[in-house]
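User: Run a structure prediction on this.
Assistant: Running it now.
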Amino acid sequence: MKTLFKFKSSSKKAFTLIELLVVIAIIALLVGLIVPAASRAMERARRTKCMSNLRSLVTGLMAYATDHDGFFPHSANNSNSWPYDGDWAVHYSDFYENYVNDKQSYYCPTGLVKNPKFEGSKNFEVFPEDGPGAWRVNTSYNYFYGGDHWTTPRPNYKNGRGGYANMDRITDFSRSTMVADVMKLGNNPSPDLDGNPGSSWNHREDTLRKSGGHLGYADGHVSWFSLKNGLPAHMVTRSGSRYYVNEQPDKD
């Protein structure tokens, strides 16, 4: 007796070209949604770290002044390398050594990520080395306080950036920026906030209006300033031929 075996023909239906293109389009759409969201989340995390950096610097600066008869670390008011140089932290004071000795605190994480050619990132590996020319090693935060290290500070001294050399002379702690994100307006501030902010901004976008930065104040708080609603005159300080976004009360 013969046993007959019947084989079922199993033919699997293949993807058509249209179906394949639809799948690819869906994947591309998901990637397009996920990547910007992930990028925004990473930027929020970097901004949180940046804010923490400025809080550390503000706290350290106030502690330094308390220990030095009210005087803040010197700045390089007459130097073209200001405000990026680290001389106020390393070469002309013991600020780095005794108050904020974490190198990460002197560099904005967003600035380092978005602009690898920015002077701050190029100097990151060597900061805070001392020695010939070391005072020009750059950081990525602006320092608005301190007396010019080529000038003997006086108790009533107010430097060329509107900041103070001595704690006793601060008129409004809650409105006086000590240290901040780099927000450089250049030599001729433009009222056109749709212009490009330039590569030196820590938290720059494609226009000034979309850009901003953190400000660390003398009372210890750190706040975010956005240019989307305009740029009030009291938020601009001139230093030599350059203008920067910050806040100083009772400007001369």
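The mean pLDDT is 81.
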